[in-house]
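pls ignore typos typing on phone
adenosine-2'-5'-diphosphate + seq
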Amino acid sequence: MREDLHIAIVGATGAVGVEMLKTLEKRNFPAAKITPLASARSAGKTLPFRGKDLTVQELTPESFEGVDIALFSAGGGTSSEFAPAAVEAGAVVVDNSSAFRMDDSVPLVVPEINAAAVAENSGIIANPNCSTIVTVMALYPLHRAFGVKRIFASTYQAVSGSGAMGIVELERQVGEIAAGQSPTRDVYPHQIAFNVLPHVDVFLDDGYTKEEMKMVHESRKIMGLPEFRASVTCVRVPVYRAHSVAVSAEFERTVSVEAAREAIIAAPGIDLNDEVANNGYPLPLELAGRDNCQVGRIRKDCAFDNGLSFWVAGDQLLKGAALNAVQIAEEVAKL
Ligand code: A2P
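k done
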């Protein structure tokens, strides 16, 4: 692995960007230099890294001179505008937005599932949608055991998935309500405090949201299963951090709960937490800040012949975004 890499983080001041920096430090990533980039508003701010302060610079097309790997998490518009300049300057882009995910020339990678695809990059590698990552971390080991055909799923997505402003909105509304005031809204179309919203991302003509269809298209690409089907309802919940997903999956082969548990235990990056006798199951509060996802409530699905239902949760800022991006960068460093 190369030890002298120059890493740029685009969106370094955002909810995911801050976690990218922390993850690089925690995993002792072989970086000789880190350049944090954000909008002009943040230029001059400092971010801590390995006991020193890094100064945030304004993102410009010239920001990528000498950069080896650029981690982008500043929204799709910024990725579309600046990723080509980064590639032109010789950097490999790991992009957390949805801008390039379904592009045939762009690998879409969850390293525990398809790390080898990193080698096929032509300058850009995409980091999948956060709920999709959490879901396939559980689904892929079960697919290897039983052969998945289709799933029905509902997500329970934390407000930090909407960026730092999502956290601010929930905190503010809780404070306003506690003070007897009417909650004010900036980010979501309805009050999120003490509520759940069956609405993540924009609505499409067929009634699903864009977020719901990401689960279909991205799961197919990551798992290499063009026939895989998924009907998903994405729900925003008043949780600060960590997404949960309730999944009912139908498989080709006969399933058993015991074999499903063994498949999860043997899989990297995901832990089994399934002791219902002791009220043991994954909770977003406990998973916030943790690298590994967790699965529980594994049971034979009573509406499918070869079906399993389960509950999976994971920190979407880490495995759903920053950690997965840094793991991809580690694969790039090995090339
Ligand atoms: P800034 O903090 O300067 O606005 P989040 O997802 O938490 O909302 O964070 C988004 C991140 O993307 C922030 O770091 C933000 O920088 C950055 N960002 C948003 N728009 C731009 C832009 N046009 N150019 C550069 N960085 C941007």
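Residues 130-146 form the longest helix (17 residues). The chain has two domains: 5-128+321-334, 132-315. more later
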